[in-house]
Write a structure and sequence with these properties.
The complex is a heterotrimer of chains A (272), B (211) and C (372). The model of chain A has no long low-confidence stretch (mean pLDDT 90). By secondary structure, chain A is an alpha/beta fold. In chain A, helix 2 packs antiparallel against helix 10 and helix 9 runs antiparallel to helix 10. Chain A is built from ten helices and six strands, in the order H-H-H-E-H-E-H-E-H-E-H-E-H-E-H-H. The longest helix of chain A is centred in the C-terminal third of the chain and has 33 residues. Chain A starts with a helix and ends with a helix. Chain B is mainly α and 211 residues long. Chain B folds into three domains: 58 residues, no CATH class; 67 residues, no CATH class; 77 residues. By secondary structure, chain C is an alpha/beta fold. In chain C, strand 6 and strand 7 form a beta hairpin. The longest helix of chain C has 31 residues. Classes of the chains: A alpha/beta (272), B mainly alpha (211), C alpha/beta (372). Chains in contact: A-B, A-C, B-C. Chains B and C meet through helix 1, helix 2, helix 4 and helix 7 of B and helix 2, helix 4, helix 5, helix 6 and helix 7 of C.
């Protein structure tokens, strides 16, 4: 049967075209659908909501442009939440390519809330060292970040004068696309009792759930869906919420392709 | 001598790090961190090695008009422009990461979209790989495709809306059999890494050396 | 009584002691939380330190509410220090009784890691025992690893098709043990490629790995008696950017159309892009990685996949040297021991749900395996 052969052997370029359309068309219409809030995201939201105004929140940008579609929406949502609650934000990062994304996000969201650099937020930039920095900041942040990313001494910012180590950071949020989340939990969380929220790509999130179960972290924002849930809690649907219909339909389409391929496979096997 | 010296260095360094793991007293306590910092410094210099290899490779392709030499011109031009933009931004804006600088323009309008696009290719490849590979040839393959389908459907808002308990099933698959299998593979992998590391430290495994 | 409800109450039961298992210069202070913690205005605790119980006390640091432990890392060894913890509510302060002295000192052994030491000794014993046994009995059994057996066939197939071989280490550095394992596999492939006179292309993500690969391939070609076929330009550095590397390797695959592709090392999200492109050019693909998240992609897209420790067994499997075989068997013995402990602990823990005595044994076993 010609149709059967065609179903079993669809040209991969046709599959590419179909998946492209399935993702692109819903994005064109910018439909926002409500999404069920999961417990890990709810816990993350409540943890930040409970912080008193003036608290210091450190956000570690541990992603780069490849994961920006998943990680930027959750980063922007967290920034919005922090600025809405009048929390002070300290941004730093362990991936050189990611720090400019941190700056882009700060620039965008600070304008929305009228926040000023050096008064309400600061960007400490990138330093190489990963675990050495995570451990060293338990003693003194200035050992690694004596200046911000522009080269300005951090003591010239009034709110940074009282920030020395994890004891002065009420919450650490790691936006991660790799294994930095586990390192923060091991070094800042386990050694210094730092409260941590993890925002991660969908692939990394399953590895982080055991830490939430054991109480070592306060919440998880996993993938674009987690970001969409957070935007919904903030009542400010944005990039992640708009991406949800495309995500849903593309998943269903792939399952449909698998079913079609197997139907063709079984019919052919029966014929033999 | 050529083989002996690296083997001795490997042995001494390896044993020192193992000892330092158990002895917090100075000078052992932060030995691992110190070695990691030294490695980062050395690795930084080896980047020069890589850049030399890259430029030589592409210049050779351009000189001898080898297959794909046009792409080599694009590569070399890209390297030169990025360097110029970076140094100029440093000079004019005190940091290449200043938002109005040419380097940030390059970053925002070229690097970010290019990298995001490469990552986005995964969507297409996942579809074609799933279509080709998820066929119920054996019992194991059938279990794999059923689990994959359930998790894919359970992880999206549309799957939640169907009210077939798909999210709960997907979570159970991820939290129980998936985690169990992963932990089993982890234990095996890390034991293998320990055995391999012992072989390297003791000089039994020497493939990373040349004669 | 009514006044007591509004009074700010101090923290209590202050304990001051040398921070255990450290390099010195640190004293730990623990306290029981102030009963006033539940109030909204309660801010946290101030830590004060002095050289005598009478003072003068100097301010050390501030700790958020909810935390009942602080490590003071600004002290000198072998000197007594006294502490008090002050509860803070808006502008109000109330002090705990003074506690001390705490004397900081360095420790020579981290007692929190004794379990690791015990297991390391057991593991070392297994490895040495099996190496000695392998020297006596050279026919020590290792099960079939299909991916490694397929190497020769893959190289042969590329030779018949008249197409080159492509080898990728992924994003691993030479500090990753898996990259060293990949080098031993590369040596085997390079020797075969030299014998069959087929071209070997190795694009690299890391310059140090590139240097090691060049040396390994040169060595292998020399051992095969064909040093003239070695081409340094075919083992090149591409870029230290993940997707730049993936794009570069894809470009090489589409232009050169290799007959056999080996993905051996540590991979991240680019794995499926590489594997699918390799499939599209019709190459036979053999993958091996310890990156668990990427294994499903390689299993779906490649012809053979080596999972985790199968890669580490490569050099022993290929060379069959007694010392290498012995270390694999030692590793297997250690794994068997771990499996027995896991099963026993799971059974004890499950039955302990109903029998409290067993539950306490289960807790002791679990706490023994915790490390600091």
């Amino acid at each position: 049967m010609k149709i059967l052969e065609k179903i079993i052997n669809i040209d991969r370029r046709v599959i590419f075209l179909l998946i492209g359309l399935v993702v692109f068309i819903p994005l064109l219409f910018k439909i926002v659908t409500p999404t069920k809030i999961s417990e890990p995201v709810k816990k993350a939201y409540e943890a930040i909501e409970a912080l008193p105004p003036g608290s210091n929140v450190m956000i570690s940008i541990d992603f780069d442009p490849t994961s920006a579609p998943e990680c930027m929406p959750m980063y922007i949502a967290i920034l919005r939440h922090c600025f809405k609650r009048n929390l002070r934000v300290i941004v730093l990062g362990h991936i050189a390519y990611g720090i400019p994304l941190g700056e882009i996000g700060l620039e965008k969201v600070s304008k929305e809330f009228g926040k000023k650099y050096g008064v309400d937020y600061v960007n400490l930039g990138f330093r190489p060292g990963y675990t050495a920095i995570m451990v060293g900041m338990g003693r003194e942040i200035r050992d690694f970040y004596a200046q911000d990313y522009r080269g300005t001494p951090i003591d010239s910012f009034p709110f940074m004068r009282d920030v020395h180590n994890y004891n002065d950071i009420e919450m650490l949020v790691d936006i991660a696309h790799g294994y930095s989340a586990e390192l923060w939990v091991q070094y800042a969380g386990a050694r210094y009792g730092q409260r941590i929220i993890i925002g991660s790509t969908g692939v990394v999130a399953p590895d982080i759930y055991p830490y939430l179960q054991s109480g070592q972290i306060e919440g998880i924002i996993g993938g674009m869906k987690g970001a969409a849930e957070y935007e919904q809690l903030l009542k400010r649907p944005d990039m992640a919420a708009i991406g949800m219909p495309a995500l849903s339909i593309s998943h269903f389409f792939i399952v449909f392709l698998i079913i079609m391929a197997n139907i063709g496979f079984f019919i052919r096997r029966r014929k033999r | 001598m050529k083989r002996g010296v690296p083997l001795i260095i490997t042995f001494v360094t390896g044993v020192l790090i193992i000892i330092a793991f158990f002895i917090p007293h100075k000078p052992f306590g932060n030995l691992e961190q110190r070695f990691l910092i030294w490695y980062s410094i050395v690795a930084g210099f080896t980047m020069l090695l890589g850049i030399d290899s890259l430029i030589k490779y592409h210049i050779r392709k351009i000189r001898f008009r080898e297959k794909g030499w046009g792409y080599s011109i694009v590569t070399v031009t890209g390297i030169v422009i990025t360097l110029i933009f970076g140094f100029y931004s440093w000079y004019a804006y005190h940091t290449p990461l200043a938002l109005g600088s040419p380097f940030m323009w390059l970053y925002t309008y070229m690097i970010v979209p290019l990298q995001s696009t490469m990552f986005a290719l995964l969507a297409f490849f996942i579809a074609s790989a799933a279509y080709r590979a998820f066929r119920a040839r054996t019992i194991e393959a059938t279990l794999l495709l059923i689990a994959a389908a359930l998790v894919m459907l359970g992880r999206v808002p549309l799957g939640e809306a169907l009210r077939l308990k798909l999210p709960a099933i997907a979570n159970w698959i991820m939290e129980v059999p998936q985690t169990a299998a992963k932990r089993g593979i982890f234990i095996g992998t890390y034991l293998g890494a320990v055995a391999m590391s012992i072989r390297v430290i003791l000089g039994i495994e020497r493939t990373y050396l040349s004669t | 009584m009514i006044l007591l409800i509004f009074m700010l109450l101090p923290p209590s039961h202050l304990k001051v002691y040398d921070t255990p298992n450290d390099e010195g210069g640190s004293i730990t202070i623990e306290w029981r939380l102030s009963p006033s913690e539940t109030e909204r205005e309660f801010r946290g605790y101030e830590i004060y330190r002095a050289l005598t119980p009478q003072g003068p006390f100097e301010y050390v640091d501030f700790v958020m509410k909810g935390k009942n432990r602080y490590e003071d890392k600004g002290v000198k060894d072998n000197k007594p220090y006294y502490y008090k913890v002050v509860a803070v509510r808006d502008d109000e302060r109330v002090e705990s009784p003074v506690a001390g002295p705490g004397i900081a000192s360095p420790q020579w052994f981290n007692t929190g890691r004794i379990n690791v030491l015990i297991f390391t000794i057991i593991f070392g014993f297994f490895v040495i025992y099996y190496i000695k046994r392998a020297k006596r009995d050279k026919s020590l059994y290792i099960r079939k690893i299909t991916g490694l057996d397929a190497i020769d066939d893959a190289v042969g197939r590329a030779t018949e098709m008249g197409r080159p071989i492509l080898f990728s280490f992924g994003l691993g550095a030479l500090t990753d043990v898996v990259t060293i394992a990949a080098l031993s596999i590369l040596r085997r492939i390079a020797r075969k490629a030299a014998e069959y006179e087929v071209r070997l292309i190795i694009p690299n993500y890391d310059p140090i790995v590139m240097a090691a690969a060049q040396e390994t391939v040169k060595q292998a070609y020399t051992e095969a008696g064909r040093p003239d076929l070695y081409k340094e330009n075919d083992i090149m550095f591409l870029t230290a950017d993940q997707f730049g590397y993936a794009a570069g390797v894809d470009g090489i695959m589409i232009r050169e159309k290799p007959g056999a592709i080996f993905f051996q090392g540590f991979f991240f999200a680019e794995s499926l892009i590489l594997a699918e492109t390799g499939h599209s050019v019709g190459a036979i693909q053999i993958a091996g990685t310890t990156a668990i998240t990427q294994l499903p992609f390689f299993i779906a897209a490649c012809d053979y996949t080596m999972i985790g420790e199968e890669m580490y067994a490569a050099s022993a499997y290929i060379d069959r040297e007694p010392q290498l075989l012995g270390s694999i068997k030692g590793e297997d013995a250690a794994k068997l021991l771990i499996m027995i402990i896991i099963i026993l602990t799971a059974v004890i823990g499950s039955i302990g749900f109903f029998i409290p005595q067993l539950s306490s044994i289960y807790e002791k076993i679990v706490s023994f395996f915790e490390t600091s």
